[in-house]
């Protein structure tokens, strides 16, 4: 605690007793404080309003007026006023009530001068800390305001990005459908038979046009999801039946790649309230990924298990896995890894972002576990029909 002449705080002593006045004044001036002195509350108030005062030291009893009233007026003048009150033992009870006026300290009379000096130092320190705290609070408020503004700007930019993606995908789909129909005509001999080389080229154009269309539809789909423009059409759904359907549909691709794709022994499940088409989309995306990132000879297994509130579905593969540092990034849009390795190079990194949004729209959650070169397991939940989670 500093009680040296380096002090700059200014104090105001309000005390009728001239002996006490000068005792205080001298002792505190010696400690480096600037000291103003008033003999009664009225003068005290006038001095307080005209000068910058850090701390008031006042008696609680005056001959012609009450110290309580003085404190009340002081507080009205400055809600942050700092005060030390001196009170006779007989007035202590009354003095204690002054706590309501934010009194920093209460010193019973008689007192030791040192006691007062140390109370003044403590009060000044407390006031300084409170002021610093207030400054920090104000700074924090400014920062929060700045952050909020940046967030709103980013949100606006994000909205623009989504609008841009929607517009550009729409615009590109129109000429693309023209390219597709002309290629179709070429391949089907509308302008005469093509020689094998031309046919091969036309086929390549068709395949790439199909792929491009798929990408543009993915972007459109995702943008709609982002803009909250997609509505779920819910109905009671048996998850096992949906898994069976999607597995059946993707079996030819798995066989062509020599990958063993199967649904684990289905156990009876409670129904979920879901959008069947979207649930198929979630599963198709996860299986498509598993097929892309699993080498020939690998295995993909799907399982669904009943839990009190939800059905949990797992899609497990024995593929190349995902490095631990990438695991928390894969659900972000346009994020892809190991694209350089042939089969994984297709797509634009939207699949999992769509899957996550769709699962969450259903009120479920999705997570992933993976070990490099061993395989990956995606686990997602869909609330049961009677569950309170995720009902809209
Ligand atoms: N089963 C998996 N095994 C290994 N890596 C995976 C698996 N699933 C996803 N990933 C990684 O996560 C990335 C993001 O997947 P996501 O489905 O979002 O994009 P994509 O499949 O590359 O493209 P898109 O789905 O748009 O066609 C993938 O590029 C891949 O690096
Ligand atoms: Mg994908």
Summarize the structure in words.
The chain has 392 residues and is an alpha/beta fold. The protein has three domains: 102 residues, Rossmann fold (3-Layer(aba) Sandwich); 78 residues, Helix Hairpins (Orthogonal Bundle), CATH 1.10.287; 149 residues, Histidine kinase-like ATPase, C-terminal domain (Heat Shock Protein 90), CATH 3.30.565.10. It has a five-stranded parallel beta sheet, with helices on both faces. A five-stranded mixed beta sheet has the order 7-9-10-12-11. Strands 6-8 form a two-stranded antiparallel sheet. β9 and β10 form a beta hairpin. α2 packs parallel to α3, α5 runs antiparallel to α6 and α6 runs parallel beside α10. The N terminus is likely disordered. The chain binds adenosine-5'-triphosphate and magnesium ion (MG). Adenosine-5'-triphosphate (ATP) binds next to α8 and α10.
What are the key terms here?
single chain, 12 strands, binds magnesium ion, binds adenosine-5'-triphosphate, 5-stranded parallel sheet, 5-stranded mixed sheet, alpha/beta, 50% helix, 3 domains, disordered N terminus, 392 residues, Helix Hairpins, Rossmann fold, Heat Shock Protein 90
Q: What's the quaternary structure here?
A: single chain
Helical fraction equals: 40-55%
Mean pLDDT, all residues: 89
Hetero groups = adenosine-5'-triphosphate, magnesium ion
